[in-house]
Each structure stands twice: as C-alpha cells, then as structure tokens.
Write a structure and sequence with these properties.
This protein is mostly helical. Helices cover 65% and strands 0% of the residues.
Length: 314
C-alpha cells in the first residue's frame, strides 16, 4: 500500500516543530489525536509483550495514524513492529547499534576517502541514530518527503534505512571533507540534515547500493566496525539509559502491580486504554515529547492536506 496515495492536492510544505497553539487546532481535536496515538502504542505493546517502547517510536506511529487512520495504523504498525522495526524494540540497543555499524562499510565501498576522513575524526555513527529509528520522520520537516520515504522503506529490506543514511552522507561528501577533522565538527554537520535533498535521486541510489553491496557481503565489516567503535560507546550508553527510563511498557507494567487496587489487577486495562485515565496520564508523563510531536505533525499534515483533516477529524 502506498502511503503517499493519501497526500491529496493541498499545499506541500510544513514544519514538525511548534506547540499546540501554533498547530491552530481546537483543543478537543488535539486531545483526540493524542488519545489515538497513545491507544495504538499501548495496544501494540500489550499484544506483544516481547516488544519494548523506544524514544522515537511515536514518530513512526503518528505518521501512519495521520495517513490511514487509527484502525489501519494499528494493524500496520503492529506488523512493522514485529518485522522492520523489531530490532529497535529489544530490551537493549545492541541490535540497533549493530545496524548502525553497516553505515561505515557502505561508505567505505563507495568513497574510501570520505570513510577514512570520518574514521580519523572519530565521529562514530550516533548522528544517524534518530534517522534510523524514526525512518527519518523525526528530522524531516516536509511531510511529503517523510511519507515518500515510508513508501520506499515499506517496500524494501529492513536495512534499507541505513543504506539511505549512507547515501545522504555520501551526497554531502564535500561538506564533510571541508570540515575540521574532529568529532565535534563532523558530528554537528551531519546531525543537521538538509531539508532540500534530491530525494528521488537518493532513493534510487540507495536501491542501487543495496544491490551492489548487499548486507550479507557487509556483515563481516559491520562486525569489525563494532569492535572499532569506541568513541560513541559512552554516548550510546547514556542514550540507552535515558531511553529505558522513558519506556512506558516497562514502567507501567511495574507500576500496575504496585499501584492498582487488587480488584483492578485482573482487568485487561491496556486493551481498553480509553477507559483508564491512569494509563493515559502515566504514558503522557513518561513520554514527554509525545504530545508535542503529535501536534507538530498534525500542523504539518493540515498544511499540505486540508481535505485529509476532514477525514481524520469528521
């Protein structure tokens, strides 16, 4: 299914940043969208106890919610969570870090000079972390581009987002080489993703690189990269600890055992999240960025698809 089929003919530019006031939506509509977003996340986590929330998951969920609505978004995201997103939803970030370790071998195959410069700068790969785990949904301001990339990733191998990350770095070769060869300078440059990238060209290039250098051929280099990756280790550790503290699935499951009344513990509280305000408030408190992200995406969506507003909020 092509997500971009729902784009409509409205204006095509928008920004994800901004608060509730800037979204220009009635309070009831904003709250309704946030309720739906939290419902989807909680329902998927309850149905799949082996999955763990990670900071950034809501960026993916809200994109599907805006395009296809709550019911279909729930089914699609649940399927993705057990397939394409599965490695991100482990209790630790080990598999996520392993996927990031494919980035430098891809760059090395195409541009050894750029690869060596980045290695000398000891920049690591954490600059691409949010790109990978949100499918670029957290870093791109134009919703058209987000939806186009989601179309692409849905139709491809689960590792395609890391190939797309590589082509972005390769596309910015000269900017990188013009930097001072130190971690701070290169990381700052790469973490600020341009908003005017030639997306169709990069998508085509990523597909070509996947065929030329499939994951099976890069596995050994990726494993070696993991051994060499020392500079970003402490940063990853800090990120992982911070993320673990914000996971509603882990915290809620512990709190339910201690805070709910005995007669409530037997109820399926997560499968009917709309009926339990404790669940809502807990998740809102644990995922601070959730509401702001959802509202900012709504603002963007309403700017490019006013007709879709009427479908989402009849």
């Amino acid at each position: 299914m092509a997500l971009r089929s729902a784009q409509g003919d409205g204006p095509t530019s928008g920004h994800w940043d901004g608060g509730a006031e800037k979204a220009g939506m009635p309070e009831e509509q904003r709250e309704g969208l946030q309720e739906e977003l939290i419902d989807i996340i909680l329902l998927i986590l309850e149905r799949n106890p082996q999955l763990h929330y990670y900071q950034g998951y809501h960026d993916i969920v809200v994109t599907f919610l805006l395009v296809v609505g709550e019911r279909l978004a729930t089914s699609l995201v649940e399927k993705l969570s057990t397939h394409h997103l599965r490695d991100f939803m482990d209790p630790t970030m080990d598999n996520t870090k392993h996927i990031l370790n494919y980035l430098m071998p891809i760059i090395d195959q195409v541009n050894p000079e750029l690869h060596d410069f980045m290695q000398s700068a000891e920049v690591g790969t954490i600059f691409a972390l949010s790109w990978l785990i949100t499918w670029f949904g957290h870093v791109l301001s134009d919703f058209r581009h987000v939806v186009r990339l989601y179309d692409f990733f849905l139709a491809c191998h689960p590792l395609m987002p890391i190939y797309f990350a590589a082509v972005i770095v390769l596309y910015r070769e000269q900017e990188v080489l013009d930097c001072d060869c130190d971690m701070a300078s290169v990381h700052h440059l790469l973490s600020q993703i341009p908003q005017d990238l030639p997306y169709e060209t990069l998508i085509s290039r990523a597909g070509d690189l996947f065929v030329q250098f499939p994951p099976s051929e890069l596995a050994r280099e990726a494993a070696a990269q993991q051994q060499a990756e020392r500079t970003a280790a402490s940063t990853f550790k800090d990120f992982e600890l911070a993320s673990a503290q914000q996971r509603p699935d882990m915290v809620l499951r512990q709190r339910f055992r201690g805070l709910l009344r005995p007669e409530d513990r037997t109820k399926d509280v997560l499968t009917k999240p709309r009926t339990n305000r404790f669940v809502k408030l807990a998740v809102m408190g644990l995922t601070v960025a959730l509401g702001a992200a959802a509202l900012a995406v709504v603002k963007s969506a309403l700017e490019w698809a006013p007709k879709f507003q009427l479908q989402l909020f009849p």
